[in-house]
Write a structure and sequence with these properties.
By secondary structure, this protein is α+β, with helices and mostly antiparallel strands. It contains four helices and twelve strands; from the N terminus they run ααββββββαβββββαβ. The strands form two sheets. Strands 1, 4, 5, 6, 7, 8, 9, 10 and 11 form a nine-stranded antiparallel beta sheet that branches. Strands 2-3-12 form a three-stranded antiparallel beta sheet. The longest helix is centred in the first third of the chain and has 19 residues. The protein is globular.
């Protein structure tokens, strides 16, 4: 019976490994690397410096353009510390996205861009588009920075603060969130593109 103990332990370890490997949610999100460290993606190859507290979703796909128009990417979810007690929703994120091809426009990444501009930042020229929507007390704001067929998207979902009793919810820190999104974009380095 002594051999049964190690075999049982081995069988339980294998079952646990299979259960965890089969759990897409366990694979889809993981904590960001420690502050100051770099997140590296292999296909396509890119790296970014992820701000503290952000979590990584490597199975992210942008699907708001409709059927058959999904965009591959990696999303960096806003930390709970930025949303807790504020009107910033937990589904807000910054993402790095890509499409195959040589020539893309903002319309390939953003439906109904209301503002378009050019930005030169850290020696990189970006096309910038914004779009927004609202309904039932929810406000959605998107900003896409596009270079070639690669983009950095900020998706910000907030709720109308006027819908809450006074003093129960504070406005989220728009500057801190903008700075975090800019830091991700400025640290982005593509390999072989």
């Amino acid at each position: 019976m002594r051999a049964a103990g190690p075999l049982l332990a081995l069988a339980m370890a294998v079952a646990l490994a299979v259960a965890v490997a089969g759990d897409a949610s366990a694979q889809a999100q993981r904590p960001a690397p420690p502050p100051g460290e770099i997140y590296a993606h292999l296909r396509p190859t890119f790296s970014v410096r992820v701000p503290p507290g952000f979590t990584i979703n490597e199975r992210y796909r942008y699907t708001r353009l409709g059927p058959g128009k999904a965009i591959e990417g990696v999303a960096f979810a806003i930390p709970r510390a930025m949303t807790e007690g504020t009107n910033l929703a937990a589904d807000s994120y910054v993402s790095v996205e890509w499409r195959d091809g040589q020539r893309c426009t903002l319309a390939d990444f953003l439906d109904g861009a209301t503002e378009e501009a050019q930005l030169s930042d850290n020696g990189v020229r970006w096309q910038v588009g914004t779009a927004g929507d609202s309904g039932a007390g929810n406000i959605y704001e998107e900003t896409v920075h596009l270079r070639g067929c690669d983009a950095v998207r900020s998706f910000v979902h907030t709720t109308n603060i006027a819908n809450y009793p006074p003093g129960t919810v504070r406005a989220y820190d728009r500057v801190a969130l903008g700075n975090a999104a800019d830091a991700i974009r400025r640290s982005l380095k593509w390999g072989g593109r």
